Amino acid sequence: MPLSVEDDFAIAVLLPCHNEEQTIGDVVKRFRDALPGAALYVYDNNSSDLTALKARAAGATVVRESRQGKGNVVRRMFADIEADIYLMADGDGTYAPEDAPLLINTLMTERADMVVGTRRGVTDNAGRAGHAAGNRIFNGLYKRLFGRDFTDIFSGYRAFTRRFVKSFPAVSGGFEIETEMSVHASQLKLPVSEIALDYGRRPEGSTSKLSTCRDGAKILLMFALLMKETQPLRFFGTVAALFLIASTVLGVPVLIEFLETGLVPRIPTWVLSVGLLLLSMLMVVTGLVLDSVSRGRAEQKRIFYLSMPSGRRDNGIRPPRIDHHKAA
Question: Which residue intervals define the domain Glycosyltransferase 2-like in the entry (predicted)?
Answer without folding.
Answer: 13-165
